[in-house]
Design goal:
306 residues; alpha+beta; Hypothetical upf0131 protein ytfp; five-stranded antiparallel sheet; 7 helices; 13 strands
Length: 306
């Protein structure tokens, strides 16, 4: 039996294999990263160049807590010996702290992983080390991860890889009982959209759950609600309370719904990354809504007249 593995969420220079191997060789450490488990997004965090590294000659990346935003990352399996090497490289305990985070997939999935986040005492506004930024860009591109956010983070954008929309599919739809909540968010736009998933009739409201498997082609009909810049934190706080989601640091069993990322297909074929809420409790005897439309299940027209 091999050594027990944990998932590690890398978002900076450790994505670049050559750079990390060079550091290990200089210090007599073994290469720490095991099997690649794919890309994802650290929930409710944003990437920022907010930490000075003398070795790099400028600012290096951190992830800072930011409700409703995400930091692109790559997931690797790492054993205890691997984390010993990563602890040394990241200066765990004085430069970075080792934390547990939720990493989301654009398909609605979520896993727990270890990440390194700057110690509050070390954070400052600092210009990015350009050579370091190029190492990050090279590593992210090699892993098939987004890279456009790197330039935005170098420019000190608050949300370099913003999630600016919600997908709603039940009582928050236009014309439904909680439509006023969405109106109160003063969205920049609202348009019809659909996502992969299955819809359950929970009597007074519906609940979306993931597809039954890779061959399940079921879709849920709803609306993509795009918010104005800067309004996501307050929107997240309000909708989390409505949907009974108590935060990514709580056990999933305490929630009624969980906030997840989902790719929404809109009329022109675009795929837009948005937040949504998945039903987190046992479905019990809930009836499936086979056509995936809460409005249609209630005998109302679809799509709603603009």
């Amino acid at each position: 039996m091999g050594a027990p593995m944990e998932l590690y969420a890398a978002y900076g220079s450790n994505l670049d294999e050559a750079d990390l191997r060079a550091w290990c060789a200089e210090r007599g450490k073994r290469y720490p990263l095991g099997a690649w488990r794919g890309g994802g997004f650290i929930a409710d965090h944003a990437p920022a160049f907010g930490l000075f590294a003398e070795r790099r000659g400028g600012g290096v990346l951190d992830v800072v807590e930011r409700p409703g935003q995400v930091a692109p990352c790559g997931l690797f399996e790492v054993d205890e010996g691997g984390f010993d090497a990563l602890n040394a490289k990241e200066g765990a305990g004085w430069l970075y702290e080792r934390v547990r985070v939720t990493v989301l997939e654009p398909s609605g999935g979520a896993v727990q992983a270890i990440a390194y986040r700057a110690m509050p005492s070390q954070r400052r506004t600092v210009a990015a080390a350009r050579d370091y930024a190029e190492v990050v860009r090279r590593g992210a591109a090699a892993r098939g991860l987004p890279t456009a956010w790197i330039d935005a983070a170098m420019a000190q954008a608050i949300d370099p890889h913003p999630v600016a929309a919600f997908f709603v599919y039940g009582t928050l739809l236009r014309g439904e009982s909680r439509a006023g909540v969405v109106r109160g968010l003063e969205p920049a736009s609202v348009e019809p959209g659909s996502v992969r998933g299955r819809l359950l009739d929970l009597d007074r409201y519906p609940g979306m759950v993931p597809p039954a498997g890779p061959n399940d082609v079921s879709r849920v009909q709803g609306e993509l609600v795009v918010l104005a810049p800067g309004s996501m934190p307050s929107a997240v706080a309000q909708l989390d309370e409505i949907e009974g989601f108590e935060g990514f640091d709580r056990a999933e069993s305490v929630h009624l719904f969980v906030r997840r990322l989902i790719e929404v297909e809109v009329a022109d074929g675009r795929q837009v990354l948005a937040w949504t809420y998945l039903f987190a409790r046992s479905a019990g005897g809930a009836m499936p809504i086979e056509h995936g439309s809460w409005r249609r299940s209630r005998g109302r027209p679809e799509p709603f007249d603009k």
